[in-house]
Amino acid sequence: MDMTYDTVIVGSGIAGLSAAYRLAPDHDVLVVDRAGIGEGTSSRASGVLTAPVDYPDQPEWAAHATEFFRDLDGTGTFDWIDREYVRGVRPDDRDNAEESAAVDGIEIVDVEECGDVFDDNAPYDRALVWEDCGYCDVDDLLATLYSEASRRGVEFRPDTTVTSVRVTDGAATAVKTEYGTVEADTVVVAVGSTTRNLLADVLELPIRTFTWNVAYLDADLDDGYPMGGDPNYGAYWRGTDDEQLLVGVEHCYESEPPSEEEAFGDRLDAFIRDELGGLLAAVDAETDVVRYEVCPMADATTPDAKGIIDAPKEGPDDLVVAAGFHGAGVMAAGSIGTAIRSLATVEEAPFDLEPFRLDRFDVRGTDFEFASMFATEN
Ligand SMILES: Cc1cc2nc3c(=O)[nH]c(=O)nc-3n(C[C@H](O)[C@H](O)[C@H](O)COP(=O)(O)OP(=O)(O)OC[C@H]3O[C@@H](n4cnc5c(N)ncnc54)[C@H](O)[C@@H]3O)c2cc1C
């Protein structure tokens, strides 16, 4: 006999899996994904876990996210690797940087104190250093959330496409799949860049597709090489376990959906060729690019480059939406899961959910300018 679940979660990316993990102890949960579990965009992430850097206006949210990884460390195959994040500061950005450094866990230092991280001609005179950061293998993170949620009774239905959300008397009551209908008290939709399309009949959302492009460089880094990035180039980097430098660059599509040519744009190439050697001492004209990794699946973004996690009043009751995490979904896993749980159970979250509400936007369609996630930082 078919059962009614407490919660059906559509999407087994980092948002869906972290919600399943958080709800598992006391809820009957089913997770449905059109592909394999955790095999979407989340599986392509770089594993940069820098919530204090990328959510500077939400310190409680960021701390909750980081604590989650520290607690999860050693569970299943998941390891949190502690690593400082160091960002060079240009002289004309000193005021902003000093403001950022007023927060616990962030230090501002003279650039000389960063050893030989930066090139001698780099345009920085100071550097911001975040301590409470790290990185991980994202496949291990996804697999661990999957196995821990399964162990606590969450059911998973992979290879099952959800075609619509059923609304009865103003409330979401089920999802329709290609193999039949699944009833639930609460429906969570966490399908990344396809969220807008899936919900088109019940709720309009300001979500667009975009992506990151990534390359690995043979930079022969020292053990413990700090993570970093430069907002001027929409770029981040980190060392890998085999001493390569992983470099990622924000890549905003101009059209929707992007043409193939656009998706495989050369902005990353230009950054590595023309700029990176002038920023980092470890990179010069001789440094080989070992491989490029152009993510074939899109990520999603919103008008302010921050996710939507909400049970929006303008949508049906009992519907929770979580999408649009730009380049900062994996690092926020612990908080996204807690936020979804609190909306599904009407418990109070241990942080403010206001910054993630849909009604912060005036726009609802896809007709909005891309905002870099780096532009919202200071
Ligand atoms: C190259 C790259 C590097 C990145 N690096 C980082 C990083 O280092 N740190 C970080 O924090 N973030 C990073 N990000 C961003 C991060 O990957 C995203 O913010 C995050 O993965 C989004 O997760 P999600 O669960 O919202 O969506 P997704 O991972 O896209 O999950 C959505 C799921 O829904 C499923 N689905 C879609 N439609 C349906 C349907 N109709 N029915 C059923 N299932 C459906 C998909 O199969 C998929 O599994 C990176 C992104 C990219 C592209």
Commentary on this structure:
This protein is α+β, with helices and mostly antiparallel strands. It has three domains: 5-47 and 139-207 and 302-376, FAD/NAD(P)-binding domain (3-Layer(bba) Sandwich); 85-130, no CATH class; 211-296. It is built from nine helices and 20 strands. The chain has helices at residues 14-23, 51-54, 59-72, 94-100, 138-151, 195-198, 260-263, 267-274, 333-345, and strands at 5-10, 29-32, 48-49, 81-82, 85-89, 106-110, 126-130, 134-135, 155-157, 162-168, 171-177, 180-189, 208-217, 227-230, 235-239, 245-251, 289-294, 299-301, 308-310, 319-323. Strands 5, 6, 7, 13, 14, 15, 16, 17 and 18 form a nine-stranded mixed beta sheet that branches. Strands 1, 2, 9, 10, 11, 12, 19 and 20 form an eight-stranded mixed beta sheet that branches. The chain has a three-stranded antiparallel beta sheet with strand order 3-8-4, with no helix packed on it. A hairpin with an 8-residue loop joins strand 19 and strand 20 (319-323). Helix 1 runs parallel beside helix 5 (138-151), helix 1 (14-23) crosses helix 9 (333-345) and helix 3 (59-72) packs across helix 9. The longest helix has 14 residues, at 59-72. The radius of gyration is 21 Å and the shape is globular. It starts with a strand and ends in a 33-residue tail after the last helix. The mean pLDDT is 92. It binds flavin-adenine dinucleotide. The site of flavin-adenine dinucleotide (FAD) has 39 residues, from helix 1 and strand 13.
